[in-house]
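Researcher: Last one for today. Full complex below.
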Amino acid sequence: MADDKKVTLSVFRYRPEQDGEPVFQEYQVPYHDDWVVLDALNWIKDNLDGTLAFRWSCRMGVCGSCGMMVDGVPRLTCATFLRDYYPSPIRVEPLANFPVERDLVITLDDFMDKLKSVKPWIIREGNNSPAVAEYLQTPTQLAQFKQYSMCINCMLCYAACPIVGLEPHFLGPAATALAMRYNLDSRDQGADQRQEALGDEHGAWGCTFIGECTEVCPKDVDPAAALQQAKVAGVKKWYRGVVLPRGGR
Amino acid sequence: MSEAIQHDVVIIGGGGAGLRAAVAAAEADPKLSVALVSKVYPMRSHTVAAEGGAGAVIKGNDSLDAHASDTIRGSDWLADQDAVEIFVNEAPRQLIQLEHWGCPWSRDPDGHVAVRPFGGMKIERTWFAADKTGFHLLHSLFQTSLKYDRIVRYDEWFATKLLVNDGRCEGLTAIELRTGQLRHIAAKAVILCTGGGGRMFPFTTNGSINTGDGMALAYRAGVALKDLEFVQYHPTGLPGTGILITEAARGEGGILVNKQGRRYLQDYNLGAPLDVHDPRHPQKNTMELGPRDKLSQAFMHEREKGNTIEGRYGDVVHLDVRHLGQRKIDKKIPFVRELCKNYAGIDPVYELIPVRPVVHYMMGGVHTDVNGATPLSGLYAAGECACVSINGANRLGSNSLAEILVFGARAGQAAAQLALQRSSPNVTVLDAQAADEQRRIARDYINKTGGSQRIVDLRTEMNTAMESGAGIYRTEASLKQTCQTLAQLRQRAGDLKLDDRSLCFNTELTAALELDFMLEVAQSLAHCALARTESRGSHQRTDYPKRDDQRFLKHSMAYRTEDGPPRIEDRDVVITRWPPGERVYGS
Amino acid sequence: MRKPYVRPMPWTWFLRTAAYRRFMIRELTSVFIAAYLVFLLVWLHRLGEGPEAFGKMLQATRTPWSVVLHVLALAAAVYHSVTWFNLTPQVMPVRIGEERLPHSAVAIAMGYLPWLVLSGLIIWGVLR
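Model: Here's the assembly. Have a good evening.
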């Protein structure tokens, strides 16, 4: 096959045991019109440089492992096609706003903590679930929270949001969307318990509605909407607390 | 060598089965400390990619016996019927539990959980969450697991070996990826939930992480791998990538057509096709809703007849869902539409989807009883890496998501009970074993210089050997060739040329270890396939085309030997109320 | 051995992408809105001080500088309004059964339409 088209990848490298600072390394990779950036990275690792480290698994956009910055934009590298950049060189970096562990691998400890901080599980008062059967939930009720349940935890939204970079304690888009997913679920009764994490100055109120999180989300979760709705819900709750201090819910 | 970490129960693998086992163990007793070790963050486990649904009896028109009968028939009578009876009995309870834990099951208008038809089942019983059931199930389980502080997670710890002392499994060694340190965890019970090994094959729905790790760990600890030769090819994967197009597309009425536009399944004893606009279409247990092994085999026959369509990545047939209409597609199988547009360059609302069979699931695995216990005291297994067996020679779609919950919970409970009774392991002995393992890894990988074999070459050759010799149709010659190739590859794997010497997040090291696991399991698989001189379910021998209950209504049990080929014994299948019969589909 | 690397975030971060730059401009339009509010308050105060004070104010607003500032303020106000109308559907989604009204419908119903109607009424009232 006379298919010898090539494309250049400029890849962020960082080896903590030897580098003080990151460097960019250039690789010439075969170009195929149906290859994604992840295919190119795997080709580099298999054939040119076994030391390149990056995360991936499902390669179909559902596991959330392979998020990286491609030409400065947070993308799932398994869903980013070389043909949309060829013949220009492609710059690949680890997700912004996270510490870099090694090469394209980021440290996501804070993110995991933020997810946990919103108590992302069904909370019932007094453990009163129907013993044998399911909760009844109409398709309309399911539609209330469905969109927010689609988050694959890929963290592209955190990489897109400058507030995450400026204010490390900011709860952030995905964690807020997850909180709203449960608050809006008709089976859940735990909105009050999530209010501390949401209503905090670093909670939903840290958001200035830049909206880039929604722009980059590969699953149309619309976390920006979740953040604003969390603010509105928080205000309503506050008013109810003031006007009906004992009866409001 | 750092100190042993001590827990009561340690679970290897953070997917559906692992998380379910962790929660079950945590709920068994508040005194228990439960460790969950996973080489990836749990949300990345391949359960996340499952699409179609989870099967359980919940509607009035259904019965436990019907689910059992469909499953046993689908298994070509190789499933253990006592295990199947337990499975169908507990599946509804587990799926309701998931619902209570927030899983957003799709609903009927009255608010009850909805079900849809699935392959090989005479009555519809597949619960679904649009067409991302595995994703929703995994995330609901993972988020629920965060409730329990006594579940301690070790994310991105790569298990390398089980620690066995005095006939008991008492822990494991694992590389903490971010530091490269070899750590060890001592426990009273260990549960393997590491999934399948589809990456032994070149075209698979599986993710990069499905490399048979737990199967190899158990095998090396002396536990038998059961029914390894049974590998399921899912009939509808995208060509090239192998990305899964869910059976639900057929459950909603999608049809398979060949080059001539003919619904070719009618030529393979799967019934007669109804018009797609007939209200009775899709007919259960018929045509496109037949069992996966027969559909994949039909493709191979069509290809031989020249009826398949030539594509860039080999031959395909077409899956046609256009008649469902955009609204139904966007409501019931939206992920299918997204995948086709991204990875096949077509919009299934208007165009035909190119599909072909790809490796999807391993029916075989670590031999366990109905409580997930292996013969090695203290070692349990659940999920795809285990073989109870409820799937026998061929698994029905939507039984796996239910299986991981039922047996994940059972294994978790059984392991918890054992841990409550048992005293703590002798850590000194385990420390010594861990130190040995640390030396092995340093010697064979980190500090290894020179070498001539590249990981990618060995992996590619393994893939080719498996697909050509141990694919959908096998012969003695093809299997013998594969066995020979694998033996050579195993030898060559002792001489790897590695680039990465670092300790921090060394993924070349993990790739090498995974290759090692895969080669070992693949070799065992090929030998088991060679030994089974009959055709049953997904194991088809063109030289032995008939099912032979006389000699082979038995499980194959592969035991590791020092020199390569496994020692294969057999084990009777448990038959309770369903005597072996003909597998009839099409009505 | 771990040594996670934290990439510094420069104070000029908002210059990095077109989306960030547009965001900053949107935020800056609030300055113009606030300034115009102050102007209106002064205007009202002068009105209350009698025709002579008010006459002087009117003359001041007719200078070229003032006209330029007013045009800029109008442009900023329009940009401010348009961006916020477009964002309203994310703040207040409207659901009918299982379906959600498209963003454009909500933006028009809750933003553009009332804006046009009110502006029309005011202009008609002034020109009458």
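The CA atoms of residues 11 and 173 of chain B lie 12 Å apart. Chain B has a mean pLDDT of 97.
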